[in-house]
UniProtKB/TrEMBL annotation:
The lineage of its organism: Eukaryota, Fungi, Fungi incertae sedis, Mucoromycota, Glomeromycotina. Pfam families: FAR1. This is FAR1 domain-containing protein. PANTHER family: OS01G0519700 PROTEIN (PTHR47718), OS09G0290500 PROTEIN (PTHR47718:SF13). InterPro entries: FAR1_DNA_bnd_dom. It comes from the Eukaryota. Residues 85-176 form the FAR1 domain.
Amino acid sequence: MSYNNKCNKRIRSGSPDNYEEEYIALILDDSSNICEKENEKNIEAEQINKRILVNIDNSEDSEEEMEIKLHVGQSFQTWLDAEKFLNQYSLKEGFSIRRKRTEKLVENGIEIIRKITWECCCAGKYQAKKVINPENQRNKKSKCTDCQWHVNGNLPKSSSNISFTTVINEHNHQMIPSPSATIAKHRKLDEDIIEFINFYVLHGTTGARNIKNLLNGQFPGRNINQKNLYNAIQMAKKNLAICQNYDASDMLQYLYSQKAEDSRWFIETKFDGPERRLCGLIWMSPDQQHAWTRYHDVIFFDTTS
């Protein structure tokens, strides 16, 4: 039965006074049913979208995990790429690595790295260096546990790619929680961050708080250790001071070097305060002194400040 027939049937069965009310109520009931069905469809569509997003996130996580996996045969373009991958892997697992051995060959006058062995920072055995006098001994613990984890990288002459030929992925110690904050190697600032610190210091921004806020905006999600940041700022200031040209000191060095070669040079200096700041300087070369004997009635005095 169609929608119009239902309406007509209900209208005929009622009294004339209730025709209009029943008709409006019937329309409202049908419209509410339609809205409920549309809401159910929207809810179902949202659930499907959420499932799709969850699947996408899981697939991305699985791809990231696959990228961090370590196995024999992995190839890289450069040694820096290989070491960067191992640093990322060790950061994820909770330990740090170091180079154990590097083999270099000179070919056509060029030094080429052919093999590198990386080992865990806990590799090796601790050998105490104690003296006879117990008062001069220091009972210090060591992190060396003779860990056997190591990776061999090789660059054969027949290939331009670096590959891992040996992977011993076994540890005899516990992994370190939150290695980015506890292991010194992973706390180290990257080169791109240090370049920005040098740039900020060069252009007059030397406050650690301001520089850290700028770095957090430039490198979101990167770990910036406060102590390493202070050290990097001080190093940038030191390098900046070395690069600056000190006109007064350079001039004094030049004048005294000239006087060391010819004692006829006349140099008079004036320093002020406990810091011995140069506040006055006058000099006369031998040629100027000779000209003074001939043209003593003419004085040309140049002052600079």
